[in-house]
Amino acid sequence: MTAPPVIEAKDLDLTFQTNDGPIHALKGVDLTIDKGDFVSFIGPSGCGKTTFLRVIAALEHPTGGTITVNGMTPDEARRQRAYGYVFQAAGLYPWRTIRGNIKLPLEIMGYSKEQQDENVEKVLELVDLKGFGKKFPWQLSGGMQQRASIARALAFDAEILLMDEPFGALDEIVRDHLNEQLLALWARTKKTIGFVTHSIPEAVYLSTKIVVMSPRPGRITDVIESPLPKERPLDIRDTPEFLEVAHRVREGLRAGHAYDD
Question: Mean pLDDT in the chain?
């Protein structure tokens, strides 16, 4: 028996009403994300990548079409704590230690102190920050702060992890290292991941499925199922298979610009 999709969007539209008139952010989006998928969203700035992620998280509400998360509305899924969300900036509170930052959602959700401590230790180890729990955010590098942000999103063990360009502000060496760590984390936890990026190599390296989007109003121009193996050393990026997928992503981005608004 085939498992139901984790996320399913059908003919999804979203129009923002502004003082300057309506802005059509998403148009006719059809997409299915299955359990355990690592799905990257790539497209030009303002194409609706982040908006779609926010619709999944019930931070924005569509004005047309339908979307379900674990068979529920996004609002219901949010109440069921179905997902963790990692923003572009780490967003850690400077007056709280790393442990205190990770604990915050658990405190809000009413976890016992024992369960909080247990979960924090578990996710600190998952993101290779064991021993850094008593540090404050300013004492950690940008890459370590983002790993702490990922740990916070994992703390209550949601099945879905939504990541909005979490490594975009980091230098290439740190980004490569975190990409490797994120793949290892995904392999260990078997989460379903939605990941926004502007980087073609990052999208191809990380994903089982790459969703290419057009300029606003955001449409899906291509959905690429990756042929790459799940075990991916960084040097896979030099292989013909990798370069072929990257070429298809580039062609999809180019095709998106051919749409008339």
Answer: 92
**Angle at Cα 186 formed by Cα 180 and Cα 187, nearest 5°?**
90
Other CB atoms within 10 A of residue 223 CB: 14
The reply to whether 165 and 237 lie within a common domain is yes
* pLDDT tens per residue, range 72-126: 999 999 999 999 999 988 899 999 999 999 999 999 999 999 999 999 999 999 8
Token pair, residue 210, equals 């790459």
The domain tally of the chain equals 2
Domain that holds residue 68: 7-82+158-256
The residue out of 118, 138, 157 marking a domain boundary is 157
For the chain, counts of helices (H) and of strands (E): 8, 9
How many Cβ atoms sit within 10 Å of the Cβ of residue 82?
22
Task: Note whether 207 and 194 are within 8 A (CB).
Answer: no
Give the whole-angstrom CA distance, residue 239 versus residue 259: 32
Residues 45 and 150 in one domain: no
